[in-house]
Amino acid sequence: MAVEGKDRSKALEAGAQILSGQLGKTVQRLRKAYNLSLSELAEQSGVAKSIISQIERNETNPTLATIWRLSQALDISIDRVLSSADDEPFIQKSSRADTPILVSDDGKMRLAIIGWIKTVEWLQWYDVQAEPGAVLDSDSHQRGSVECLSVLEGEFEVEVGGVVQQARTGESLRYRCDRPHTVRCIGNAPGRAVMVCILKAAVMD
């Protein structure tokens, strides 16, 4: 039976609120995955900081143009941004185009966010690909956080608090990342690794 009049209007409004709420959660998770502030995302997307804040709090219904700008800044397809969690299949596949990429300041190390975007506030994992000599400097994460780097190819070293440790193919390094830390690809060959970050403080909240 078709919904008419006021009932139809209410149904449309309810649907818009659900979609907007899912959008807000997705934008916030992606922004945190990139370690972006509201101001930084606003600068990269051209969307006002106040609007992004309202979207994340589900206080506004953004235009398609706004959603497109945010999806471009967050390096994810617009249909992925708009997808509803209730409609996701039990087995979920992400394409290469839907996988956000972080790049080190020197441009030599790329981290593909391969973890579930819904867990980025407490669990993150990345596919790391690095050129020889690549350096990734990271700020402190939440207190008690731990990072694990498992080397698949090449050789890496990690420096935390003045302590340096190296790992080759098949070896892993686990270290506190609640202080500034640096990951380097050493040697003459490219490197590849899986990095997992457990944000303990976020779990305890």
What's this entry about, in short?
This is Transcriptional regulator with XRE-family HTH domain. The protein is an alpha+beta fold and 205 residues long.
Detailed description of the structure:
- By secondary structure, the chain is of the alpha+beta class.
- The chain folds into 2 domains: 8-82, lambda repressor-like DNA-binding domains (434 Repressor (Amino-terminal Domain)), CATH 1.10.260.40; 96-198, Jelly Rolls, CATH 2.60.120.10.
- It is built from 6 helices and 10 strands.
- The protein has a 6-stranded antiparallel β-sheet with strand order 1-2-3-10-5-8, with no helix packed on it. A 4-stranded antiparallel β-sheet has the order 4-9-6-7, with no helix packed on it.
- Helix 1 (5-33) crosses helix 3 (49-56) and helix 2 crosses helix 3 (49-56).
- Residues 1-8, 10-19 and 201-205 have low confidence and may be disordered.
- Residues 27-81 form the HTH cro/C1-type domain.
- Keywords: DNA-binding, Transcription, Transcription regulation.
- Pfam families: Cupin_2 (PF07883), HTH_3 (PF01381).
Query: Which ranges are low-confidence, i.e. pLDDT below 50, for 5 or more consecutive residues?
Result: 1-8, 10-19, 201-205
> Radius of gyration, Cα only, in angstroms?
20 Å
Highest CATH level, the class of the largest domain: Mainly Beta
List SSEs in N-to-C order. HHHHHEEEEEEEEEEH
* Total of domains: 2
Shape: elongated
Number of E-type strands: 10
Secondary structure class reads: alpha+beta
User: Remind me, CATH topology of the largest domain?
Assistant: Jelly Rolls
The mean pLDDT is 82
Major sheet attributes: 6 strands, antiparallel
What is the level-2 CATH architecture name of the largest domain?
A: Sandwich
CATH homologous superfamily grouping of the largest domain: Jelly Rolls
Give me the number of helical elements: 6
Largest sheet: spatial strand order: 1-2-3-10-5-8
Oligomer: single chain
